[in-house]
Amino acid sequence: MKVYAFKQADLEKWVKSWTSTHKVYRAATQKSETCGAHAGWTEMTDGTMPPCGPAKSSVKTFYFPQPETMATFSAKKEDPDGLLMENQETPEEKQIVFGVRPCDGRSVELNNLPYVDDPFYQANRERTILVGFSCTEQKATCFCTQTGGSPYGTEGLDVALSQVGDVFLAEIITDKAAELVDNGDGLTEASESEIAELTSLRQAVEENPGHDESLKAKEMTALHGAPFWDKVAESCLNCGACTFLCPTCYCFDIQDEVVRGQGKRIRYWDSCMFPLYTLHTTGHNPRGKKVQRVRNRFMHKLKYFPDRFGPFSCVGCGRCIQECPVNIDIREVMVDLLAVK
Amino acid sequence: MISYLPYPVRIDDITLETEDGNLKTFKLVLENENDRQAWSHVPGQFAMLSLAGKGEIPIGIASSPTEEGHLLFTVNRAGVVTTALHQMHVGDRMGVRGPLGNGFPLSSDLKGKNIVIIAGGFAFTTLRATLLYLLANRSDYGKITVIYGARTPGMLLYQDELKEWAERDDLDLHVTIDREADGWEGLVGFVPTIAGEVAPSPENSAALICGPPIMIKFTMPPLEKIGWTDDQVYLSLENRMKCGVGLCGRCNVGPFYVCNDGPVLTRAQVLKLPLEY
What pLDDT, in 10s, does the model give residues A38-57? Predict the structure, then answer.
């Protein structure tokens, strides 16, 4: 793996050079900046450094754009092939997302576990280059190390940038990212001492406490039946903010939309916090009670998903903690679950 | 890679099944030769019926894989898509995406066993597929018992076939209705009562039960009384679904995805799951 070293001005120049060949996105710093297709993100024209902590909106908007067209059809009566679904081409245009925090990078890998055979997710993964930025400081709501991540993690990233002293080191992780360095012409390779310093920063990160393994060892029914769920759910408004902000919430709804004879079958984000999500046509609702929905969300992330795939379906970005209007904290839920006998 | 694109099908025939007009069986023919070659299902699986502009609904496949050339779906009119489907005509085109789910383990766990099929109301559909499959592979199974009940004689599905099956001597058929009705000379009584009277011994047997939850609940005690255990009883769950392939999230019962891990599972498995169905 190649590692290059940059002074800040050179790094900004390097990043800017991509904008002539790729669509480059960074987190929007203000509402007016945000671009239409990807709320919370903006198209980049310069080499601005990202602010501390994860961006307000996660990178899932680039992997699960909404709405996403799954098929098209003609809804015109006179059309002989009307109402037959045609395949929607998967998008191919290359894009770069700059300044992605390691937690978000990791979310792309975690979502890939269930979505490994989804044509749209895979196409978006193929066309997106993630340029990550290690975290030299953390917000009060950050807890990536408790979920198996690291502020210096590189999982899911194509390029990992890390600040070491007053230089920035760029680790070129994937072949996909190789096109950004163009054989390394005009770039300076990092010295051994700089790489050693990065390695020691990475090693200094606190060890994974293995909560995922601890919860995997517990009985599902014991965790599901624990008495604390009523207390967790009591204040929940079922607003769904946690699910929309969460980088590893990947549920969707499918709807058909017809505008002037042209139809589309689209999918867009859905939330297990909403009663309609599970409502049967008969009126029966398997998760009609708030506590059932709240429990399902946490159980999915911290028990069902790890039992099936290994890691938590949570990267510890802390968005849900920061934005929950009633201060529900997934870290506290984790502690409660770990205490269940 | 998953395909979310339904196969184009043509409605070849529509049968009104019940006196209340709410149940119709749609005979669908896959339009493309490639799709016909590729299609392969086992009884108990379901498929998404797709009506462009309306949406998709998961419906159990009522035809057996041994019936070649077409697919059958018996659909209760209930919501947006099923109502639109009920208004369609022979010759109309629509889509089918599938087959989805696991189906009954007819060629593995159930092979060589005595099979008891217990069905109530319009949940008989995938069990009709199962029964036809069993009869087509008759020598692979032991005694076959079918207990099927509906509210009234006019609410029984597949009435012509019921008459044919009644005349077979390699099949023990018990059709019942809830209350006495004019012109009905068959059994009268709820499915659990009849099951208690005619169910065979549990030895080397398996029961496949589909019906309203209340029927399943009351069918268990009479079976348990004569020694049946939960791992011999196969059920099929239903939950709201969108994708049918384990991604959209809503059909899970605890860790169990009805679409991918089910819909078929044993009662022993069901009892270990939370009550989210």
Answer: 888 888 877 667 666 678 88
